[in-house]
Structures are given as structure tokens and as C-alpha cells.
Amino acid sequence: MTAPTQRTKILVTALAAVLLASLAAIAVVVGRQNAAADAPAGAADSARPQPAGAAGRPGDRLRVLSNGLLSTVSLADPSGPRTVTTTRCDRVHTAGGTTACLTPAGALSGPRLLVLDERQRTRRTVPLTGLPNRTRVSADGRMVAWTLFVGGDSYAGGGFSTRTGILDTRTGHVIPSLEEFAVFRDGRRHRAADINVWGVTFAADDNRFYATVASAGRRSLVEGDIAARTLRTLADNVECPSLSPDGRRIAFKQAVGADPAKGWRLSVLDLATLRRTELAETRSVDDQAAWIDDATVAYALQRADGTDDVWTVPADGTGRPRVLVPGAASPAVLPAAGRGR
Predict the structure, then answer these.
(1) Is 137 in a helix, a strand, or coil?
(2) Is 306 helix (H, G, I), strand (E, B) or coil?
């Protein structure tokens, strides 16, 4: 066979480049169509990533998980290039320069809590038992909370229960289970064997926090006090709370008809009045939402193929859901250098 000429080689290379570019374009279109297919009826345009400047301030970034890998992306261009690390997490959250990463369980080992600094260096490792479910960091980066599904509790009837702990990164003190705290309902001490606690979100003082407590079939928002070791109920049918940056509202999921089997409706609770606002996202959201700013709530939804996308929706019940970061989960805002949050 005669060897190809130099001109032929150049032509073949050019054609290959065109073909690869076409395939890449097709892949992007297909991905966006998949996201649109999972969007609510009439919201096809909302399945496109938000435009630059949709939320946050110049220089802000987002910490997300991309296929389970710790990643960052510009908040001004959330569908743009990402910095992807090799750190694998099932759940992650970042605030105040601290990252909490719940690692997957291995074949012969349980999951771990990795506490990372701003340069992604490991500051603390906490061995855990169970299946990672939730994690949160306080705004100043001091306090870290985690929730795992665990088995073996006698009241669980062969199913799962939860175990939620808190780490004070400044003192090193670990609270292995918030079930040790005293629960008060309507001013009276509530004692039961089936108490479960999950979904912590911290207040600004690093002592108070909010979480969900379940007992006797009731799921309630509680205000926790670390120093007093107490949990006081505030409202029922509130799960996976997330405190707004202004400290006045809680984003949460509430079971439709108070029945988790019917799915969850993303909502916001005013802490002063306990008034609830159902948000414009009508699909079932099984996630602990995050606040992009005081007006915007973010959360993950899974496509039919198992891929997660980060969506946002206004926190006042108006507007409609929009994709913020395709192919991602566990969003958290990383303020620009020199600006706190």
C-alpha cells in the first residue's frame, strides 16, 4: 500500500478535528436535553444554566461534588470550567475556610469525616460507622456536623436509624451523638427510645444550631444548645433545615401531607412567625438545601440516568427552578478572597 502524502495527512487531521468538535457539541446538547426532560412541565428554558451574575458577587466560587469528586467552579460561570480534585466524598460542605468531607465506605473500612483547610490539606480525620447522609460547617468554619444512616438499633425494626455528631475544630471536642441531648417538646422533657436526630445547620454564635428530631412518627424542627445539651422543638414536619445567611429563615423539606412516602416539598420557614412558604420547585427534593444568597436556595436533583444537577429557586415562593450547575451536587458558596460570608 502506498504511504499517504503529507497533504493527505493534513486533510485527515482536519476532518478528524471537525468530527470531534461535532461529537462534543452533540454531547452538550444531549446533556441539556436530559436536564430539560427532568424539569417541571413548561420549564424547559429553566433547565439551562443560569447566566453570569445570576447570584453572588464577583469572584465568588462554588464548592460542589462532580461525580463524587471535590470541585470548584466560578459562580459567575457555573456551567464553565471546573477545578476537580482527587478527593472523593459522598457529602461535602464548606464554610469559613473549612471543608467537611464524608468519604464513601470502603470494602473493609467505614466512612471517615475529613476536615480540610483552605488548601485542601487534612486537619482532622474522624472514623465513622454507617452510610454518609448530611454534613454542615458553621459560617466561621469552627463547628462541623455530620449525619449517617446506621443499623442495629432495637427500635428500628431491621431498618435504618441515624447518628449525628458535632466536632469543635478549635478545641477538638467531639459529640458523638446528639441523641445524648435532652429533648423538650412544648416545654416538657420528652424521653423515648426511638429518638433520631439529623440535618444540623449552625447559627452564628457556634453554640446554637437547628436540626430535625424524629420520635413516635413526628419529625420536628429543634433548636439545639451545645452548652446546655438541649434540643427544643419549634415546629413539626420540618426536615433537613438550612439557616439563611441573615439568620432569619430556614429552608427545609416538608413531607407532602406529612407523609414522606408522598415525597417532599421544598419550603422556607420564617423563624419569628413560623410562617411557611412553599417554593416554586414542585418536584420532590430529598436534600438539605443550601443558600446561595439571602434570596436564593440551591439543592440537588437527580436525573433519570442518576446524574445530579444543582438547581436554584427564589426563596420567597416566586419564580421558577433553574439549573445552576449541571452534573453536580452539594453546593456551597466560597466568597471571594478578602470577603467574609
Answers:
(1) strand
(2) coil
Q: Is 0.85 topped by the overall pTM?
A: no
Partnered with residue 174 across adjacent β-strands are 167
Sheet holding 143-150, edge to edge: 131-137, 143-150, 161-168, 174-175
Cell of 233: 422543638
Cell of 217: 412518627
Q: Which three cell numbers stand for residue 122?
A: 487534612
CA atoms of 135 and 262, how far apart (whole Å): 25
Counting beta carbons within 10 angstroms of the beta carbon of residue 330, is it exposed (0 to 12), middle (13 to 18) or buried (19 or more)? buried
What CA–CA distance (Å, rounded) separates 273 from 109?
46
Instruction: Supply the DSSP string of 76-127, one letter for each residue.
Output: SSTTS-EEEEEEE-SEEEEETTEEEEEPPP-SSS--EEEEE-TT--EEEEEE
Whole-angstrom Cα distance, residue 33 to residue 17? 24
Could you identify the residue written with the cell 482527587?
86
Flag whether pLDDT at 256 surpasses 90. yes
CA 190 to chain CA centroid, nearest Å: 30
Q: CB of 312 within 8 A of CB of 298?
A: yes
| Conformation bin of residue 206: beta by default, left when phi > 0, alpha when psi is -120 to 50 | left
DSSP alpha helices (H): ranges in 143-257?
A: none
- Tell me phi and psi for residue 130, to 5 degrees: 125, -165
**What is the per-residue pLDDT across 79-122, written as a single tens digit (0 to 9) for each?**
999 999 999 999 999 999 999 999 998 878 899 999 999 999 99
Q: Pairing relation of β-strands 196-202 and 188-190? A: unpaired
With contact defined as beta carbons under 8 Å apart, do 327 and 38 qualify?
Answer: no
> Are 63 and 94 a contacting pair, CB within 8 Å?
yes
**Averaged pLDDT for residues 331-339:** 83
Dist CA 298 CA 36 (whole Å): 17
Give the pairing of strands 182-185 and 230-236. Answer: parallel
Q: How far apart are the first and last CA of the chain?
A: 68
pLDDT for res 59: 84
